Amino acid sequence: MAEADQTRLLALIEMPALLVEADKVTFANRAALALLGAHIVGENVRIALRAPDAVALIMRPDGGHARITGVSVPGSIWEMACHVLDGGARLVTLQDMSIQVSVARAHADFVANASHELRTPLAAIIGYVETLSDEKAGEDRQTRERFLGIIRREARRVQSLVEDLMSLSRIEAVKHEAPTDPVDIVALAREVAGEFGETSSVEVTSDAAQAIVGGDRSQLAQAIRNLVDNALKYGRPGGKVAISIEASATGWLLLQVTDDGEGIAPEHLPRLTERFYRADASRSRSLGGTGLGLAIVKHIIERHRGRFDVSSRLGQGTTASITLPLSGDQL
Asked: How many CA atoms lie within 13 A of 171 on its CB side?
């Protein structure tokens, strides 16, 4: 194939592609120029790539494949292929593997975290059951009742975790399907607040009689319920939890759940929606938290094409905010 034909063909490839001859980059397609810069054409390949592993692969007599890190930005991961063409020129292609590797790592971390979260209460359950199997421990009524209480609590913890894992799985399975059923958020928020009883001090205020969004009612109820539950757990004992709803003329609804608790340190805020992340692990476990509540809220709101944020100041409480697009009928 003539050199002109080669370059025309390479220009059509979507992934970054280079031609290297006599240690110099003689051609780079648009994707390669965007990745590495327009200056690379005519440069020595060592200067153009500035990645020793990549250069070593290109210099190999028979070319080959390798996974290279840091070609574009630190931490990026690329699958690099070098093919030796007739005449000795080398065709170099790069495929970005950063997202795939990140997803695989996140999946592995998720499985490891879920296994750890399940293993801890199960170990306690098994240990106390084995202790109760001992005749002496079983005959002591106070010991038996105390151990059974621990078993019951840990079993419920496992049950809550399994339910949250299943819920997260169901939400992720339909995350690309935007729900469209009309849901009145004002009525739904009042319904959820009522579930916690009059003694919980959950107040609902709204600047509109109703606020209709297109959505999945059960999922939106779950999101609000998780936020109210968190606010009651981490708010000041005996304090109030406020749910406020605003429907703007720009076509967006803002729902906020605010508590008057101790607040959250700034370094924790960016990670609150990560699965199993806890700002205060020991307190969260003692209160029955699974570490998945806010991750579930985030996934639900993203499925509804909305946004979820948490703001907080130490000593001044925490506000969780949900922004959703109003239904066309509401505008």
From this structure: 26
